[in-house]
Design goal:
- 29% of the residues lie in helices and 20% in strands.
- The chain is an alpha/beta fold and 278 residues long.
- It has one domain: P-loop containing nucleotide triphosphate hydrolases (Rossmann fold), CATH 3.40.50.
- A hairpin with a 4-residue loop joins strand 3 and strand 4.
- Helix 3 packs parallel to helix 4.
- The site of adenosine-5'-triphosphate has 20 residues, from helix 1, strand 9 and helix 7.
- Binds and transfers iron-sulfur (Fe-S) clusters to target apoproteins. Can hydrolyze ATP.
Length: 278
């Protein structure tokens, strides 16, 4: 048994005598040189609600707190993480495996856009191929001593995210919603998927919740009032954060400077995540 055994064979690549495998277990071992403590999957009901934005800001928050943080960009058809971090260089590999690219503040990132020759090339692959690429980001990338890995999951609750959840040992899920969606249905689907996978839902993040007037400070519900609090209560979930529509956040992501975002929206989430390491 490994001296660092945490009883979770899914996050360990050692072939020890105590290893527990199960016939219905589709989980893949991470690269043998990887060491990853906690894996958090960020999911959404559909594209464009700010899942990548929330993934990036969570990673920046935990990195600022001194944790070695990584992002596995599982959103293969819409990979926006490298752009938000202003990463132009390509990922490298050796005979041992692939290496993530480090952001300016030291966040390890792997994304399909770090491998494509031209990052404006569309990815026109079918679901199973996409699922396999995400799996390879887990099995073939050397993730060096990571405290928190955030996975920007493929959007939705269909085939591709399901494959990813079956293959990667995710410790918890954060569901990103926005007030203009059918939040109730999306949260119900996410809850069912998490139950099927036996993965806890850490909570919900409502993005684009309101707009705060820069002149008078008044909050305006651009998309109307959401019922996120009632939905969370119904499923016994926490609302972890409500993010405003903030043109500065969008501009920071567009300029590749998301690491400079200013705001304390994720303080409560950070505390919950820190607890997971204890
Ligand atoms: N709170 C916010 N305030 C202002 N702009 C935002 C906010 N959240 C996201 N955006 C902008 O909305 C767009 C979509 O966000 P993002 O790419 O994070 O969504 P997504 O859910 O990951 O989409 P996809 O799944 O299609 O990749 C981006 O241009 C982003 O800059």
């Amino acid at each position: 048994m490994s001296e660092n055994c945490n009883q979770s064979c899914n996050t360990c690549s050692k072939d020890c005598a105590e290893r527990r495998e199960n016939k219905n277990d589709f989980s893949e071992k991470p690269h043998e040189m990887s060491k990853i403590k906690k894996v958090i999957g960020i999911v959404s009901g559909k594209g464009g609600v700010g899942k990548s934005m929330v993934t990036s800001m969570l990673a920046v928050t935990m990195n600022r707190l001194g944790y070695h943080t990584a992002i596995l960009d599982g959103d293969i058809t819409g990979p926006s993480i490298p752009k938000a971090f202003g990463i132009k260089e390509k990922a490298r590999g050796s005979e041992l495996g692939m290496f993530p690219v480090k952001s300016k503040t030291g966040i390890d990132i792997m994304s399909i856009n770090l491998l494509l020759e031209n990052d404006t090339d569309p990815v026109v692959w079918r679901g199973p191929v996409i699922g396999n690429v995400v799996k390879q980001f887990w099995t073939d990338v050397i993730w060096n001593d990571v405290d928190f890995m955030f996975i920007d999951m493929p959007p939705g609750t269909g085939d591709v995210p399901l494959t990813v959840f079956q293959s990667i040992a995710v410790d918890g899920i954060i569901v990103v919603t926005s007030p203009q969606e059918l939040v109730s249905m999306i949260v119900s689907k996410a809850v069912k998927m998490a139950e099927m996978m036996n993965i806890p839902i850490i909570g919900l993040v409502e993005n684009m919740s309101y707009f705060q007037c820069p002149d008078c400070g008044k909050e305006h519900k651009i998309f109307g009032n959401s019922n996120i609090d009632e939905i969370a209560k119904k499923h016994d979930l926490k609302v972890l954060a409500k993010l405003p529509i903030n043109p500065k956040i969008a501009a920071a992501a567009d300029k590749g400077m998301i690491e400079l975002f200013d705001g304390d929206w994720f303080e409560a989430v950070a505390k919950i995540l820190e607890e997971k390491l204890r």
